[in-house]
């Protein structure tokens, strides 16, 4: 008889209640005030004319595997009403509801029909043809209300990139007309952006009568309450942008060629190179609508840097932050940017190297914040020398509260160049890649940039301290690289059957145990349990032990060898499990129920009376892009603890989160699952999330998707052409920080290829970079179906094919998920015939997996 940790009643548990409360308390701090003429916080509740597609259908988070099956979502209408506002636009909202219901039905029929025609599972068709809200009804009459609020929502999800078109990145004509009507007819009007990413704000910024513009983001189940709290000042929003919001989509350097924009989804050339986000806008002097790090407060602050010093190899300074307003409390985000000399290497105008958020400062209160960062953080990767290097020259340090509002605080003088780590180039740069910096435009912009930085540094020298760095104190690290083929583990205890219990007690080693396993057992341990026999199309719900969890590992050796199975469930906006499932009285799962929002299959009718019902409602926390806007690592950690507590309750070992790909382009369909355009901020957030989850013994995170998973169209088969330097500085940097700072249990490789080789098959990425250079000591898994033919799911390969199972094992991609029978046979054959992989490779992978299994054992 199977045992489930799920609840036997649908009643709200104490944990669910408490977690909801924490989200309500904290999520408002992630919201970013873009504009506010003083209307916010509102002076009290009032009659409000509420409109927009997010008023009633507030989006809690995006779609796909990143969706969380929460019990309910408090919409903005409900949040406002429960706070004391009177919403007077019920008729308009009802009329829109009817249109939405009709559109949803039409969409579902379309998906069904297409699935039949194309012989694809519905879920995959739904990825390709996401539901879009119908345009809102025209607003023609002014209601009797003191305030008008328009909630503009946008949704996106995996498998599909967004479009720079009306209704998505751009506003529809109707949305513009409606919002204009509100600003003209009402004395007070506010627009709330319930989006997971960037949209075009040209129209909104041009509107005369708009009193406030607020990014409320997508904050999970409590969304409506959080918004009401923020509007009324019960919670003080203190978010800052983690991306550059451009004036025009075309201003993003990757916009012309990104994903479907140029009609080529097979090859993606990262020609902007390291100039991603503000690194581009600042260097190429493109004025954004809202710059990286920007956000207003309900109050004003002064920031005064008091003292800067170098202690050993760290730069430290004390910043006095003061709330100089009279009325409201607030939190300020201290951001530190550095402009490096740029003599031999091209450098961005500036880069974020440190940040700190203050506590909640009441009016007139101040706080002295210590900010520190290692000198090595100022280094750039030189592919010429295969090393991180600090160039000789003056480094200008600026401190402020956004990337474009800073003051110089010190100049660090380095009298000679110095390597901070000597590595190896790993990623076979593709010579068809033309880098922006090498073009005429690039060369001119960089020459201007160097000039500008030089002048600014010279000007600063008169006012700020110059600290000469003792370069002899900076160590050059040299990782120990694995050399030669892996060595086969030999059985030293042929007379007995070793178990994991003995390994746990320290009587024998993991290697001793692994050496005793047969090739068949080893292969099975490296492949998830789905095996494509049943439910092959139900993406991401392959676990039999925790229903709705994305996958689990082979449990056949649980009895004899005490090898535990690991249960893996999605995130990152909470835990994605099936909220309600049924079993027979014997505990056998009955098919049916909700897997994620768009995949619901009814339970069979006339089930016997002894059918059992189980419930696993999880808390939807803010999506990653909203969470990161808090710039508050304690807050992010706290959200990780929420996921961790629910993993513990339901018996999940590995959270398939956080997602930490870089926001290279605003149209990436999964940007909402990732934190930022900046790798440093990304790495810090992923580390904080991980520390939260891993504060529970035996539970870990899976940082994903490693690496360069920046496009969703043709995501399984797209080849990212990227330079070694851009990989090191932008696309791998966050992963490196998270690994070093928080030691996540696992890493999930991405679907895409990097310079012609699938990341799942890259030894240089998994063994050389992650393990040898950064010290990663967990196990690596593939993304779902990465080593199998996905044509059956309607994702047919075009120019490139799927990743090789055998090469994955050789590369140190230890686990193939969710698992298929063919992968097992392949690995057995590979190990026996030593083709593309060896038996030693397979043993090595099992050892890595079991090292995490060991941590989950009590
Ligand atoms: C996604 C992963 C997810 C997995 C399991 C894949 O489609 O890319 O992020 O963890 O499914 O659901």
Description:
- This protein is α/β, with parallel strands linked by helices.
- It has four domains: 155 residues, Glycoside hydrolase family 3 C-terminal domain (Rossmann fold, 3-Layer(aba) Sandwich); 174 residues, Immunoglobulins (Immunoglobulin-like), CATH 2.60.40; 321 residues, Glycoside hydrolase, family 3, N-terminal domain (TIM Barrel), CATH 3.20.20.300; 36 residues, no CATH class.
- The protein is 28% helix and 19% strand.
- The protein contains 22 helices and 32 strands.
- The chain has a six-stranded mixed sheet with strand order 1-6-5-4-2-3, sandwiched between helices.
- A hairpin with a 2-residue loop joins strand 30 and strand 31.
- Helix 1 runs antiparallel to helix 15, helix 3 crosses helix 4 and helix 12 crosses helix 22.
- The site of beta-D-glucopyranose has 10 residues, from loops.
- This is Glycoside hydrolase family 3 C-terminal domain-containing protein.
- Belongs to the glycosyl hydrolase 3 family.
Looking at the structure, the CATH topology of the largest domain is TIM Barrel
Number of strands: 32
From the helix content, strand content and strand pairing, which structural class follows? alpha/beta
Shape: globular
Question: Would you identify the regions where 5 or more consecutive residues have pLDDT less than 50?
Answer: none
CATH architecture of the largest domain: Alpha-Beta Barrel
Proportion in β-strands = 15-25%
Give the integer mean of the pLDDT values.
95
Query: Strand arrangement, largest sheet?
Result: 1-6-5-4-2-3
Question: What number of domains?
Answer: 4
CATH class of the largest domain: Alpha Beta
The first-to-last residue Cα distance is: 22 Å
Q: How many distinct helices?
A: 22
GO molecular function: hydrolase activity
InterPro entries: Cellulose_deg_GH3 (IPR050288), Fn3-like (IPR026891), GH (IPR017853), Glyco_hydro_3_C (IPR002772), Glyco_hydro_3_C_sf (IPR036881), Glyco_hydro_3_N (IPR001764), Glyco_hydro_3_N_sf (IPR036962), Ig-like_fold (IPR013783)
Protein name: Glycoside hydrolase family 3 C-terminal domain-containing protein
Keywords: Hydrolase
